[in-house]
Structure formats: structure tokens, C-alpha cells
Amino acid sequence: MDKPTLQTSQPLSALELAISGKLKSEQMPEFSGYLQEKIIRRIDYEREIKALKPKLWAAFGVMAFSVGLLAIAGDYMFKAFAQSPSYHFLALTFTDFGVMADNWQDYTFSILESLPLGALALTLGAGLASVLLTDFSIHQWSHFRKISIAYRH
Amino acid sequence: MTTHDNDIKSTGTEPTNRPLGLAKFASGHSRKFKWLIFALIELIILIGVFALGLNIGFRKAGFTYSWASHYKSNFGAPQTAQLIPPPPSNGYFNPHGVFGQILSANGTTSVIIKDSDSNEKTILLSPGAVIRQDYQTILPQNLKAGEQIVVIGEPNDQGQIQAKFIRIIDQN
Q1: Which of B94, B152, B169 sits opposite A103 (nearest CB)?
Q2: Which chain A residues are Cβ-neighbours of B56 within 8 angstroms?
Q3: Would you tell me how many other CB atoms lie within 10 Å of the CB of residue B164?
Q4: B63, B25, B50: which is closest to B153 by C-alpha?
Q5: How far from B124 is each of B9, B111, B121, B136, B149, CA to CA, in Å?
Q6: What is the per-residue pLDDT for B14?
């Protein structure tokens, strides 16, 4: 049995061999190497897109969730700051900088003691998760675009 | 010069410029060395934050204990009275700063305020304390009941705050 001839000099993959074998067994007319390559590229493309799509949806879904969580955490932190005296202590930096600089140790302690740490940690955690998941989503999307563009050309 | 000139076989005895062993590890090019430095910096930051948290926690707990121990004497109750101080509603008190409303002003020596958690705090007014309203520095006797103030100061053993700076907040 003659092996199908492709325009590439690389050895044939199992998929290529299977397609050429199927064409021969069906007694279909001989396809040119170019057409066979197109079929293989299309199959490869569909296979890669199929594998990528769930990842892409999951990435965007988790990113949207993390951004929502960040908004909730931000609101929670805003309320926590409004209830704590930290806001008033921080405002003294702008109104009485000289006196605060003279008493920097007591001033620093007063801010550190009054910070709403739980709300702050939650917001920073949500912010970090959002940044990482946004980066992951952008990476997945650019991979998706790269595959699509590569197939078109 | 041909490419064959570079094909000189090594005898294994000539000196080499590449660092080996511990020298390679410490030269800054080793991946393990970079990780070690990174881990050490992380550890130092972690220990620093832990020590700071410990220090702040100790100060807050100490001040809250002193405040509760001297509750009767600080707020003028007779020693025979059964007066139990209210527990702090939000963990421990902040010993270095407080925001609240003046309940009573005792001339030039102290004021009693109600903080944001509705607990009374005694603020001692030392001669060096700076008291400001808007852009003006005012005298301690000008503090009036009902005014909102922010206090920065230092705690003492009696559960009081020795004020270093007081700002009167404009309520309008």
C-alpha cells in the first residue's frame, strides 16, 4: 500500500495515516497533499479549540466571581474603615503633619492598632486573586486567538 | 581561522573560569542560591510582622487590663460600689489613639470622652499637649462637653491616655 504524499517532509502522524487509510479503504478519489493537510489542520484546530473552550469559560467565570468578590470586599472594607477611628487618624497626616511627625511613634501605633485587619486582608486577598485570574484569563484568550489566527493563515 | 581550531580536546588539567561547587552556589547564578535568599528575606519579613503584631497585641491587652482595673477610681465611683466595667465590644482598646465625644471637661487636667464603642476613656492633658481647632491652637480650658475630638497619646499604668495631640473635629 502506497503511503499518501504530503507537501511536508516530516514523517506522517498516526492521524494522517488513519485518514489516508480511511480514504483508500473507502475507494475515494486521490486527494492532493494540500487538501489532506487542510483536513488535518482543521481536525487539529477543532481538537485544540475543544480542549481550550472549557478552560476559557472556567477562567472567565472564576475571574468574574473574583471581581464580584473584590467589589463586595471593597464595600465591606469601606464600611469597616468608616466605623473605625483609622479614618480620623489618617486624616491628621494632612491637617497636622508637623505634630504627627514629632509624635510619629504614637501616631504609627494609633493607626496600626485601629486598622480593620480582617476587612483589609479580605480585600487584599480578593485583589490578588482578581489580578492572577485576570492574567490567567488574558493568557487563555490570547492562546485562543493565536490558534484561530494560525488556522486562518 | 578555521572551525577546526576550536576543536582542541580538553586534557582536564587546564584552569577553568566557571565557578564550581560552593563557589558556584554562592556566585549568585545558582537558582538554589536565589531561592535561599528569597526564603531568608520572606522569613525576616514574617518574623518582623509577627513581632509587630505581638507588640501591638501586648500593648492593647495591657491597656485594657489597666483600664478595667482602675475603672472605679478613674470615673469617680466610691471604692465600696459594685461597679463592673463593661467589656470592650471590639476586642481590646487602642491605647495610643482614640476618637470620641467629650462627656466632661475637668479644667486643665483631664477630659472624659465616650469613644466610638461607647466606652469612657480618661484623657490626661499635660502642659505640652497640642490642642487644635481648625488652624488655631487653643488652651485646654476651651475644651467643651459635646465636642468630637481625636486624641493621639501614650497610655499610662492607670488605664488613662496621656494626650500629646488633640484635634477638635468640626461637626458642621
Answers
A1: B152
A2: 109, 112-113
A3: 20
A4: B63
A5: 86, 7, 10, 21, 14
A6: 54
Q: Which residues pair with A140 in a beta bridge?
A: none
Contact of B155 with B161, CB cutoff 8 Å: yes
Cell numbers at residue A129, please? 486573586
Instruction: Tell me how far the alpha carbon of residue B21 is from its chain's centroid.
Output: 45
Nearest C-alpha neighbor of A131 from the set A63, A56, A59:
A63
Residue B171 scores a pLDDT above 80? no
For A90, nearest residue in chain B (alpha carbons): B150
- Which amino acid, one-letter code, is at A108? T
**In chain B, what are the domain boundaries?**
20-172
Q: Which three cell numbers stand for residue B67?
A: 483600664
pLDDT digits (tens, 9 = 90+) for B129-138: 899 998 889 8
| Spatial distance between the Cα atoms of A138 and A55, rounded to a whole number of angstroms | 12
Instruction: Report the SS3 class of residue B119.
Output: coil
Contacts of B94 in chain A (CB under 8 A): 85, 110, 113-114
The whole-angstrom separation of Cα A127 and Cα B95 is: 31
Cell numbers at residue A105, please?
511613634
ipTM of the complex: 0.72
Considering only CB atoms, B150 lies closest to which of A89, A106, A109, namely: A89
**B94, B132, B169 member nearest A110 (Cβ):** B94
Which amino acid would we find at residue A149? I
| Contact (CB, 8 A) for B97 and B153 | yes
SS3 of residue B127 by DSSP: strand
The verdict on domain B20-172 having CATH code 2.40.50.140 is: yes
Confidence of residue A2 (pLDDT cuts 50, 70, 90): very low
Strand partners, B114: B101, B120
Are B166 and B151 within 8 A, CB to CB? yes
Question: Please, which residues have CB within 8 angstroms of residue A123's CB and are 6 or more apart in sequence?
Answer: A70, A73, A74, A76, A77
